[in-house]
Here is the input.
Amino acid sequence: MTDAAQRPEADCSLREDLLSGNVAFPGHPAEVARTKPTSAAQTGQAWRPSSQPPAPPAPLVRLPPPRLRQACFDDHQQIRELESTFFPDSLPDDDRRNLFLNNPLWSRLGKHWPVGWVLEDRSGRIVGSLNNIPSLYRFRGEELVCANGHCWAVLPEYRGCAPMLMDEYFSQPRAQLFISSKVGADATPIWTSYATRVPTGDWETAACKVLQYRDVADKALASRGAPFPKLLALPLAAALRVKDACFSASLPPNPPSFCFEEAQDFDSRFDAFWEELLLQNPDKLLALRDRRALSWHFAIPKRANRIWIFTASRDRLLRAYCVLRQHTRPNGLRSVKLVDYQSIEFGQDLLPGLLRTALRRLNAGDNYLLEHHGCGLEKMQSFDRIAPYRVRKPAWSFYYHAADPALDTELRHPDRWDPSEYDGDASYK
Here is the structure.
């Protein structure tokens, strides 16, 4: 049981709806499903027989099967248009292309690596797509090439052919690993048939800390159709703030001799940090985190001023860092995720000092929430303690598959992992 489950809960059903696993934050897919009643019982109206005869069923139209082929850069405009049907943050063509051309692995893999696959109808229109972004991992001194699938999208009338794309993805010969840390509910059946849940952390749950109480309360009341949401938000926000002040844990003091600050970029210190991180963790699967890899991975949100980098140094040597990324939900709720935290300071938890520095920065802005996905990870306990709310996600989001059966078996051990949303494609944009 987590710390949050042990803390006293206020007798406030709205707060429980707002920040529990039963009801998600505004903009969550579960909330969208609630906004459309599907039966008379849900609407509260009595059922009445219709005076009109039922409409005849629509005739079945058999579509010719689409053609499966590898994608190319020239397909990106059509892919973006297709993805925009389902994803509001589909990447512009230049950003999508740079995920490959600026990729640290591209000089080694570019001639043979598929950038993805598409389904196209007889007219040449792309009706389905899956991007295929490479990244590098290290495990026990060996390099492993990982394939990160991104934005699996298929038009509804061709949905029966969607597994063809995933079959190509998992069958590609040059990938040794397949990882995704943002698998949604719709993709869960296909991922569970090919891959395995990461064996550490709770990837169905996010830990959340409220930054702007009134704004969160306002959004929650409005999403429930409450009258006068802005007026009622004041007492609700005050109750939440008092409850958190009384029952939430506080951060311990910063350890002496460490300097905690915000960094503007990934500088040369991160190269030395990465080498030391590898030396300390030879038996853990780690994604490449040198200066070049980090700069490439976060290039898109960095250009949009949607990431923050916080560092802990001693004697001007980098000892720990964390990366926070802002994302905006469809209804305008701005949240910040703690995407990655790494430390090479053995026996010293530097996350509280990083969080204190980050909270000073975030509290001065207009972000509503601070969250971390993957509860229960040992090194993230400091975050879990100060984030009193838990949000249940629609599905388990972190899966992996290794092409080598021996490696796949080895990765079933929790001690082989240090998972975060830096893995996979969860934080590219």
Observations:
- The chain has 17 helices and 15 strands.
- The mean pLDDT is 86.
- The CA atoms of residues 336 and 370 lie 5 Å apart.
